[in-house]
């Protein structure tokens, strides 16, 4: 009898125990894979989170027909449920002391139970968080949802992503971004950049996505140069549990700064060819090379020299004839490839001599010695410079000299002395100045004035003068004698006197100029010469 009663009692207790578990686990006392009608749960079966970051596990649940969720309903998440619900609680929808916080606030129940939301989040994920998690409903209605038990896996930090990775252009500023993706807000990691580029200009920020995820980002801004080509740039992401890094190799297309050769003094008036060359790895058939300056370009030729290591040298040859006005002017060569432009300028150093001047410019007198000066100004300074005169003149003396100026200029001077002759009239006289191969010259036409000699002998002229004086003297004496005689006749008033006077008058009338010439010291031939 006792045994029957005992057996009945044990069977009764087992029935009650099964009914109690039925409310928690379903129809059987063992965990089930199929939910009771109306009791459903939706949550991801597997979740992966990086160590030190956070993850949000979305979850929604329903209750069966005839059951209602009230404000008093409590949602609880258990870690690795093994039958003991009190020791494995990690998150609860209430802060009641009956559900102690065992994760230091890292697990947070984020859903609203009365609305059927059972979502929770894990921040600062740690390796010990790897496990399966089970949701249980407590309160007036109690039920253990076994159909889906999300599995959380904590992995090491993933390698961050660096973008963009396309080829960079030398001397063009660029911004690269290092990104770490997280499923929910949490402690921001620390970003560090390492490389040969300038790593001082960095900025960290966050970007929220529509799906609730969050991106932690760090931007680095720098200007690549040719030296950065094929170098490494590394982004390091660090949190308190560890670090991860990603590296890329920078591909920089570049053109070196051009060179203009040869670098030498140019000679005014002498044609020269200068070469502009630029080396780089920017290969483009449509690349261009341009020249800019005040020179008078006569010819331009372009070439490309391809190298075996995917590099190229762009070359341009410019031909021109420099002039004095080109001295100290700028000449620029610009090379452009795929939008990359680089240039180089040089200051032209042109040696020149101005056209010489010959002075004084005046009429020369034949037989009179004269000194002409040839002067030439320029920036060609050379002790061996020379000045030469060329012409049919009879040069007596030449003196050459230099007058140096403080601005690296000089005046070359030559003084040439000669005595022009009648045959030098309308002849060419040239002065040529030469310095370091630079020559310049000036020519003039000599204007020589000459006077014809008189046909009279120098001795005849005084004789003619003396003869004329003698004639005039005799004529004066004769006039005086005549006047005296006339007066004597008038005073005596006699016939004799009159007869004698008449005779004297007759003699005077017979006296002619030939008599005077005959009695003159000069003979007839001398008189003719005078005429």
UniProtKB/TrEMBL annotation:
SUPFAM superfamilies given in the database record: Immunoglobulin
Report the main location listed first in the record: membrane
Q: Which Pfam families match?
A: C2-set_2, V-set
Record bears the keyword ATP-binding: no
InterPro entries per the record? CD80_C2-set (IPR013162), Ig-like_dom (IPR007110), Ig-like_dom_sf (IPR036179), Ig-like_fold (IPR013783), Ig_sub (IPR003599), Ig_V-set (IPR013106), SIGLEC (IPR051036)
A Gene Ontology cellular component where this protein is annotated is: membrane
Q: Where are the transmembrane segments?
A: 459-483
* Domain Ig-like: from-to ranges: 150-251, 258-349, 356-445
**Which BP terms from GO are recorded?**
cell adhesion
Which species expresses this protein natively?
Answer: Xenopus tropicalis
Q: Which domain of life is it from?
A: Eukaryota
Q: What does the record say about its membrane topology?
A: Single-pass membrane protein
SMART domains referenced in this protein's UniProt entry, alphabetically = IG
Q: What is this protein called?
A: Ig-like domain-containing protein
What is the annotated localization of this protein? Membrane
Keyword vocabulary terms for this entry: Cell adhesion, Disulfide bond, Lectin, Membrane, Signal, Transmembrane, Transmembrane helix
Leader sequence range is 1-29
Is Signal included in the keywords of this UniProt record? yes
User: Of which family is this protein a member?
Assistant: Belongs to the immunoglobulin superfamily. SIGLEC (sialic acid binding Ig-like lectin) family.
Q: Name one GO molecular function term.
A: carbohydrate binding
């Amino acid at each position: 009898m006792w045994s029957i009663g005992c057996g009945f009692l044990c069977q009764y207790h087992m029935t009650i125990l099964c009914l109690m578990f039925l409310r928690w686990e379903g129809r059987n006392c063992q965990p089930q894979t199929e939910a009771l009608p109306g009791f459903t749960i939706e949550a991801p079966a597997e979740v992966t989170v990086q160590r030190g970051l956070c993850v949000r596990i979305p979850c929604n649940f329903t209750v069966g027909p005839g059951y209602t969720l009230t404000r008093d309903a409590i949602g609880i998440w258990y870690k690795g449920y093994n039958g003991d619900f009190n020791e494995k609680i990690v998150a609860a929808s209430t802060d009641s002391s009956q559900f102690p916080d065992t994760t230091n606030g890292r697990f947070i129940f984020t859903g609203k139970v009365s609305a059927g939301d059972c979502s929770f989040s894990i921040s600062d994920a740690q390796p010990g968080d790897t496990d399966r998690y089970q949701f249980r409903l407590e309160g007036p209605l109690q039920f253990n949802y076994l159909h889906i038990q999300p599995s959380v896996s904590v992995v090491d930090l993933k390698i961050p992503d660096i973008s963009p990775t396309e080829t960079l252009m030398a001397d063009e500023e660029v911004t690269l971004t290092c990104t770490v993706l997280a499923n929910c807000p949490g402690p921001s990691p620390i970003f560090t950049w390492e490389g040969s580029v300038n790593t001082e200009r960095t900025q960290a920020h966050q970007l929220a996505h529509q799906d609730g995820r969050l991106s932690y980002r760090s931007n680095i801004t720098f200007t690549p140069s040719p030296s950065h080509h094929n170098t490494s740039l590394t982004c390091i992401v660090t949190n308190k549990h560890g670090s991860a890094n990603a590296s890329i190799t920078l591909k920089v297309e570049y053109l070196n700064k051009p060179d203009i050769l040869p670098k030498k003094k140019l000679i005014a008036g002498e044609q020269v060819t200068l070469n502009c060359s630029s080396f780089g790895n920017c290969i483009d058939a449509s690349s261009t090379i341009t020249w800019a300056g005040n020179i008078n370009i006569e010819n331009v030729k372009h070439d490309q020299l391809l190298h075996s290591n995917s590099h190229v040298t762009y070359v341009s040859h410019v031909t021109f004839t420099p002039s004095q006005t080109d001295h100290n002017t700028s000449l620029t060569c610009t090379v452009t490839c795929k939008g990359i432009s680089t240039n180089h300028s040089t200051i032209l150093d042109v040696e020149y001599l101005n056209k010489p001047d010959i002075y004084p410019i005046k009429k020369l007198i034949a037989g009179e010695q004269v000194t002409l000066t040839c002067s030439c100004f320029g920036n060609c300074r050379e002790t061996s410079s020379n000045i030469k005169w060329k012409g049919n003149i009879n040069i007596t003396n030449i003196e050459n000299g230099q007058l140096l100026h403080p601005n690296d200029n000089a005046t070359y001077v030559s003084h040439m002395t000669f005595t022009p002759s009648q045959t030098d009239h309308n002849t060419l006289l040239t002065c040529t100045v030469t310095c370091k191969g630079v020559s310049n010259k000036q020519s003039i036409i000599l204007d020589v004035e000459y006077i014809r000699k008189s046909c009279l002998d120098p001795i005849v002229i005084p004789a003619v003068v003396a003869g004329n004086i003698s004639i005039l003297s005799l004529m004066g004496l004769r006039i005086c004698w005549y006047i005296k005689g006339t007066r004597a006749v008038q005073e005596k008033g006699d016939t004799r006197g009159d007869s004698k006077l008449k005779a004297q008058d007759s003699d005077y009338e017979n006296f002619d100029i030939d008599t005077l010439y005959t009695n003159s010291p000069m003979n007839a031939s001398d008189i003719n010469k005078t005429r």
